[in-house]
Amino acid sequence: MRSITFLLCLLLVSQAVTADVIAVVGTGRVGGALGTEFAAQGHTVVYGSRNPTTEAVRELVARTGNGATAKFQAQAVEGADIVVLAVPGMLAGDITRNLGDLSGKIIIDPTNPLNFTAEGVSHGVPTSNGEIIQAAAPDAFVVKAFNVLSWEYMIDPESSGGPISIPLAGNDDGAKARVAAIVKSLDLHPIDLGPIDHSRWIEGMAILLIHNNFTPLPAFNFHLRELQ
Ligand SMILES: NC(=O)c1ccc[n+]([C@@H]2O[C@H](COP(=O)([O-])OP(=O)(O)OC[C@H]3O[C@@H](n4cnc5c(N)ncnc54)[C@H](OP(=O)(O)O)[C@@H]3O)[C@@H](O)[C@H]2O)c1
User: Fold this and answer.
1) Is residue 225 part of a domain?
2) CA separation for the pair 66, 87 (Å, rounded)
3) What is the pTM of this model?
């Protein structure tokens, strides 16, 4: 039943993809990749940065175009419909709390709580960042998305050699459908994997992907792909 609601919402939303104001908090690799792609789809991007006037941020704003701007993090989210938290995973809960009132906004969460150890990388929180962010902003609609995809493929998914599915998790079907429509507009394929606590498994996928990069084991890549 939940899946049917999601599909109905997706159908409605994908027929009317609106130009949203999207606050992208964090101006690093993921923030820069998603921000430029969102602007290319007609959305207005407001970057949230600790230092919005640096040369690097000004260059990103210019490259993003379509009326993009940069502000301090809490100011950037004020007028936004959608907030993307492209920030260090172990700080995501604290950063969310510092953003002020996020009631009614959709929060896209691409973060991974990475705990770097001598043995490699492990999942650094007892639950998941999806749940931690939802608890930090209880009246917002958190949707886990994009956390298992390297930033290079956010810009150029075709270079992966085939379709890529983006796992989504969240408690609100309407919010997931809006994020799914955005995912589709980037030539990626959304898959609804259930409520926000399923972020635990989706974040686990990212740990598997990243861990070997910090060990002598061979590095590898994988993508989720829906059965046809
Ligand atoms: N790299 C990937 O391919 C990839 C793929 C999927 C998911 N992810 C996840 O996405 C998130 C961002 O990754 P990334 O590679 O984009 O990281 P990144 O390049 O290090 O960028 C993170 C940005 O967050 C902001 N930031 C840094 N420290 C902060 C602090 N103490 N408080 C508030 N903001 C801070 C900075 O922007 P300002 O300097 O402008 O404030 C920084 O540029 C991580 O959780 C990561 O696990 C990464």
Assistant:
1) no
2) 23
3) 0.94
